[in-house]
Structures are given as C-alpha cells and as structure tokens.
Amino acid sequence: MSGPAVLLQFLNGLADASSLFLVAAGLSLIFGVTRIVNFAHGSLYMLGMYAAVWLAERIGFWAAVPLAVLAVGLGGALIEMILLRRIYRAPELLQLLATFAVVLIVRDLALWAWGPVDMLGPRAPGFAGAVTIAGRSFPQYDLLLIVVGPSVLALVHLFLAKTRWGILVRAASEDREMAGALGVNQRWLFTGVFALGAALAGLGGALAIPREPASLGVDLALVADAFVVVVVGGLGSIPGAFFAALLIGEIKAFCIGLGYSKLTLVVEFIVMAIVLVLRPWGLLGRASPPARATAWQGETVLVSLSRRSLLLLGLLAAALVVLPAFAGEYTLVLLTDVLVFALFAASLHFLMGPGGMASFGHAAYFGLGAYAAALVFLRLAAPMSLAIVAAPLAAALGAVVFGGFCVRLSGVYLAMLTLAFSQIVWSVAFQWDEMTGGSNGLIGVWPAQWLAAKTAYYYFTLALCVPAIALLWRAIQSPFGYALRASRDSPLRAEAIGINVRAQQWAAFIVAGAVAGLAGALFAFSKGSISPETLSVPRSVDGLVMVLLGGVQTLTGPLWGAALFTWLADTISRSIDYWRAAMGAVILLLVLAFPEGVAGAVQRWRPSR
Amino acid sequence: MFKSLIAGTVLLISFGTSSAQTVKIGELNSYKVFPAFLEPYKKGMELALEEINGAGGVAGRKLELVIRDDGGTPGDAVRVAEELIAREKVDVLMGTFASNVGLAVANLANQRKILFLASEPLTDKLVWQDGNRYTFRLRPSTYMQVAMLVPEAAKLKKKRWAIVYPNYEYGQSAAESFKKLLAQAQPGVEFVAEQAPALGKIDAGAVVQALADAKPDAIFSALFAADLQKFVREGNTRGLFRNTRVVNLLAGEPEYLDPLKDETPEGWWVTGYPWSAINTPAHRKFREAYEKRWHDYPRQGSVVGYTAVYAVANAVRKAGSADTEKLVGALKDLQMPTPFGPIVWRGIDHQSTMGAYIGQLAKKAGKGVMVNWHYADGAKFQPSDEQVRALRKEQ
After folding, report:
1. What predicted TM-score, i.e. pTM, was given to this entire model?
2. CB neighbours of residue B24 within 10 Å
3. Which of A395, A484, B10, B39 has its CA 20 to 30 A from that of B351?
4. Backbone angles phi, psi at A228, to 5 degrees
5. What does the pLDDT look like over A391-447, one tens digit per residue?
6. Tell me: the pLDDT tens digits for B205-225?
7. Residue A523 in contact with partner chain B when CB distance is under 8 A
8. Which of A217, A233, A267 is the last residue of a domain?
9. Which CATH number fits domain B2-140+279-355: 3.40.50.2300, 3.40.50.150, 3.40.1170.10, 2.40.128.600?
10. Disruptive mutation site among B233, B393, B394 for chain A (greatest number of A CBs within 10 Å)
11. What H or E segment, with its residue span, contains residue B105?
C-alpha cells in the first residue's frame, strides 16, 4: 500500500468505527445498568434506519434524523415498561429470551410496514459529495461521521460525569441494590437508561442511511458486531467501547486494503478472542465484584428427581417407544428433530444450569460433531457407526481447547468468548471449500440401509438420546455435579474446601461439548446433509431459547423447551404468514406467564415433594 | 398483519379444497428471508396456477400448490420437505432460493425418489457435480450468467480487471468462471485485485478504495442486494466508476435495480430483466396478465415462479400422469414456451435453457432501467457435453 492509500484506509476505518461506536455505546449503557443482554439492539438500529429513510422522503434528511432518534428512544422506553420491567426479578438471561422475541416481532413488523424491498435513503444534504484527500476522493459524509463518533462519546461522558441523573446511572451500574436502598427510583432510572440506549441505536441507524440501505437483515448482523465491540472494550465502559470500535474498524479497513478481504468474515471475533484471552475483562473493563443482584439468587437447589417424576419420565419414554405404531411418518421426522434438539439443549443446560456458564456459542460443538461425522463418513468412507463415534470425540476435543480458555472468564465475558470460538469454527467450515464444502456444505450423509426408514432412524435416535440425557442427569447428581454446582454458587468457598474450580468447569465444558457433538451427528444423518448453518449463531441462539423456555433451573426443562420450540416453529410457520412475529409473541407470552420456564412453573405448582 | 392473516386463510381454503384428482406441488421457499424476490415469485406462481386451472387443468386434473416457508436453513428445509412428502403427499417438490438449501433438498429428493424442480438456486453444483436423477433446475446457473456476460466484457478490450464478489459459493464460483472464461476470450488479460467481502456486510468505503488503488481498467462484480447498493453509492461518491467500466451479475433484476433509483450507475453491463421493454407476444401476454391480476409490475421472481408452475404442468401433460419416474422422463428434453421465449429442459444435465437479458444500466426519470439489451439464450452458454458428463457423476 502506498502512503495515500494507507491514509485513506485509515480514514475509512475511522468512519466505520464511528458508526460502530454509536450502536455499541447504547448497548454498553443498557448492559451496564440493567445487566440485560439486549438482543433487540440491532432491531432498534434497524427501526432507526427504516424510520429515517421513510421520514427523509417526506421531511428531508436532517429533520428525519432527530425524529427517528426520538421515535426509537420512545420505542425503547415502551419495550422496557411493557416487557422488561416485569421480568427483572426473573432468573438471569431470561431477559435475553424476551429481547430475542422482540427481534422476531420487529423484523416482521418492518416487513409489514415497509415492504420487502431494500430502501436506499437519500444522501445527506450538505454532505453529498467528496473532498480530495491525498489525490483521492473521500466522502464528506464520512468526515462528518468521524467527528460525530468522538462527539457522542464526549456528550455521553459529560452526561454521566456531570449530571445528577448520570451520577445515579453510574451508581446503579456499580451497585444496583445499594442505589435502590439509598432511595433511587430504579424503575424510572432503568426506563430512562433503556430509552437512552435505544435512542443511541436509533441515531446509529439514522446516520447510517446515507451509506447503506435499510434492509431486513441488518438487525442480527449488527447486534453481533455491537456485542463484540462492547465486550472488547469492557462491559459498561463507554470509552472502552470507543477504543474497541476504533480497533475493529481499523483492522477491518486494513484487511481490505491489504487484500485480505476474506478475513473480514471473522476478524472481529478473532480480535475478541485474543483480547479476552489476554485481558479477561476487555480493554478498559474492570474486574467486577460479583454483583449481588445478578448472582444466582434464590435458586432452588436442583434436587434429584422424585420417585413420581422418575415414574412419569419412564412412562414418557415408554410412550415414545410405542409411538411409531400409531404416528405418521412425518410425526417421526419431527420427533427425531425434537430428540436431537432436546439432547443439544440438555447439553447446553448442563453448562448453563449446574455449571453456571452461559454459552452463546454452543453450536460450535453441535457443528463440530456434525462435520466430524460427515467428514469421516464421506471422506474416509467409514461406516456410519464410526462416524457417530467420531462426532462426540471431535466435539470434546474442541471443548478441551476452547473450554480451557473460557473457564478463565465468567459471566457475559465467558459467554462472548464461547461465541468468538464458535464463529471462528464457523468461518473455517465456511471457507475451507475442499474439505467442508464451504458455504454449500456436504451432502449425501445418509444413514446405513437398515436405518433408512424413518421409524428405524427414530428408534436409533431415541436409543442414543435417552441414555445420553440420563448420563447428563446422573452426572449432575454425582460428586462431580455437586462440585460443579459448588463452584458456581461460591467459587471462593469451593476453592477453600479443595475443589479445583476451573478443572470442574473445564470438565463440564468437555462433557457438554461431547454430548452436543453426538446431537450434531444425529442431526447430520437425519437430514442427509449439513452446512455451516449447523455452526452458526442462530443455532446457538435456538439452543439458548430452548433452555430458557423450559427453565434453566430445572432438570427436565430443556427437554420441554426443545419440544415446545421445535413444535411451535413447525406448526406456526406452516399456518401463519407472519410466522416469526407470531413465534415471538408466543415466546413473550410464555416469558411473562412463566418467567422460571415451563418446567419451572410446573414445579412451582407442585410443591409437595 | 390482520389483512394478510385473512389472505392466508383464504389461500388455505382455496388451496385446501383438494380432491384426489389434483396434482399437488409442494413449494418450499425462504419467503421471510428473501422477501424482495419471493413475494413477486409467489404472485407469479399463483397467476400461473389460476391460468392453468382456469383452462381446465392438465391431463384432466387440476393443479394444487402447497406452499411452505423453509426457514432459510437446510436443516429446516429438509424437515419441511419431509412434511410435504409424507403428510401432504405432494407429487412434486418445487422452489428453494439459497444454494445450500437447494442442494440439501435436491439431496433429499434423490433419497426419497421424488421430482424436485429447483426454481431459483444458482449454484452450478446443483446440476453438475451434485446433480441427480430427480433434480431439475429452471434459472440459468451462475456459470451460464457469467458466460453470457463474458462476450460483453471481452468487447470492452480492457486489460486490467478487478473482481469483487460476496464471499460464499455463488460469488466464489462466479469469480472463478469469469476469470477462466475471460482469459480464454481475451488472452493476456490481467486480474489485478480481488475483494471478497462477507455477504450483506460489505465495508463499501474500504472496498471501493482498495479497488481504486489497484487502478483497474474494468471491474467484474457479483454483488447484489444491500451490498450492491452500498458499493454503488460509495463508488459514485469516490469516483471509482468515472474511468472504470463495470460488469455486474444480476444487477439488472428489478429486485436489485429498483432500490438504486437515481444512484443507478450508467453504462454497466448486467444480467437482468427489462420488464417494461420486452414486447415479444409471449412476454406482453404475461406482463398484461400479471399487471391485471396484481396491479403491480412483474419482477424477475414473478417470471421464475410463473414459469416453474408451468413447467410442472407441461411435464404432467406430457407424462399423462404425476408418477415420479414418468415425470422425470417427461421433463428430459421437454420443450415449452415461457415469457422469455421457448426453453428446453436439457436431458443431459436437467438444466433448463431459460436465458437472461444482457444489457447496460441507464437512468430514466430518476429510475434505473436496462438499455441496449438482448436476450441471451441459455442453450448457447453451456460447457461442452463431454465436460458436463465429466462433471456429472451420476451418468
């Protein structure tokens, strides 16, 4: 690269960093105070884009921006007041499920309101052209963005440092309960913070429209990027988010400038993995003392299943065994899916529940298993049985490596590191054409002849899933499980009585990974093909949704969650046009009605134990 | 939403009144992931269905469409296809958009021995490397569309070419075919830069800058949708296209051209669909019927959906039944009319010869249109039969 080229790419990086920062700042603010992992942040950004394009056509760009910001801020306040306010007391991460439902609803809402075609907004009047820098044209608007980013940083900083409300926000970030005890009205504080964070997302979206069209896919694409920035910078640290945005913006620009554009697929996740491995709390984050309000408080200890529950489960298993005699072929296909996802969800639950380690990247192990099975089967032409054995081994190996790094962290940092690793695995599968078939994946992964019939494969899946789930449950009741739960509930005390906390957690990763890998292999052979989708973020999110829907603090919850989610998706997508919104609405209702999950609710109504 | 719920219910009722006599088409597609293409596609299908059934159906039977959303992932699509096969007992599978979904469903169709008419997925593998007995594809493949553009690219007589494409199979194989075919057509051509941004996530400023720094005479692009719009706007602002000719796959399709409005870059060679200007009797009839039925103009997707349903109808008519093996035999070398002109379903690789329109972009009254266009017949842009046979393992 020549000198001017370097300069121009540097400026490009700055402009991208600014727009990245605007979104991340809001997310960081919201997380800092409310501890909500707001999946819907990208949706708020998308709403900002659509609102701004729509308004700009009517009242001009510069009038449209503040109005769009206001509208999205109001929308954020409404989401907080109608929805999130009701579930702050619910187990951690349930808010994540609620915001996921919001994502589904907002996506369909935008489709309904603005139609399916991308909407390219107008150029910003006054900043429509280019200036010449080092003999090259550079958009005036990008120069404006380069100024806007640091200005917003300064404003937010001033606001937090100098205003009374800002001080309260900081107090609540430090210690929610103490702030509450000192008479701070948390309700309005939370609403205010959420509205402000949403408004910042709206600002990011509105200011993006001179550079990119409003389109329906941006929500999830963006929220992942924003999370990366927030975590790399250090949760809750606005200056940290700014530096992280700079770092990632510049790295991306120079990847492109130097001709390594394919790296942009995953480079931010590589950066995040490196940063988290070297600095477990991000660039400017601080090691937070275990916040009282976010600890696993008031959890009912996972008790072993009562005799009656065991009997009921036994009856259920028996029903599943005799079912093929009555059910149609498709019911068996669907049930095979349910069993596979139940196994996947149970393995994730093993990490999240007893392990206390939420994973946002559990699909990595599911996909590693699926790919290992398919590769052994197709490339080595090995029999299916060998492929099924290889899957959990490969996934466990992945868990040995990734888990080893992850257990050094905790909370959202840990979750994000799992996400980073899963994205890295995904990008390898996506890029490595000769081996993994690239984005198309691998086809022709059909089970052996004796399992070709749907009934046979259903029994095969059942015969592997039931013992695997039973094994997980047994492990939870074993000394290992108790040590794991001790490590979760009180790492200090656990260490004091001689438990090697990290070793327990690492082992949990490996067990959960291996089981997820088995689920992946069963999935591959039931579909006949696999693609990078088995490793993708949506697959991980589906797992999270299943566990949370069922109830993270129950043993059987993930199973019910998986069954409910798979059945709902199948039924709703067939019968309702706007099926994603309908799905989101159902999840919201379930979240509000059963904040402890479906199985948790059943447990509560049946206290006689 | 309420309105569409009602519409959905009405659809269910009108499609649900099946008699044992109907030929059932199980259509699955990613309606909510790629709505810009697939909403017109659905309208095209429904128009064809009404026309065919209005004329008494085929082989004495009415057609019936069972439409499903495949969720946009291969795993879900396979389950949906299983439902169509096992529960709905459809005679034919049809649809899919993304290549990985298309390949997964084709793979299932081969296993379950049911005809799969892949309407949209573009990957070459669907009919070549991974082609199978039961899978037929309507749209011109990535290779064919690239081959259609290469003569125009060669006529530009530019030496230094830069390439930009979305980083997944469609973009990769488009870039690969382009390099190979252009080097054959124009020996001595140089490829000076290659940019492969992630699909839907192009950092357009940096990409435009990097391309400009390589000082190409011309650019081949396979970008579409939001990536294309970002690229065009940045390129316009930064003057990338001032002295650089551009050849862009798909950019002339209304789905991707219309959002560009006054940003439309003039003079680009593209594949697409100049719907308002094609005045052959076949196309005029289609356009008028479509506009009358939907009060909207047809998009590329409309033609694909419309033609796919007609393809099934013609195959059933020729076979005289909806038996899978007979349908496979009937579709091989089937000739049929389409709004784009007559096509043949090649027996050798199950690819239809439906072509595409090649032309240049221009701005008219603040809107993008195609000018200087001609129809490129898909039959003329195929590798030799020996090459096809070598790629297709099945034969």
Report:
1. 0.91
2. 19
3. B39
4. -60, -45
5. 999 999 999 999 999 998 888 889 889 999 999 999 999 988 889 989 999 999 999
6. 999 999 999 999 999 999 999
7. yes
8. A217
9. 3.40.50.2300
10. B233
11. helix B99-112
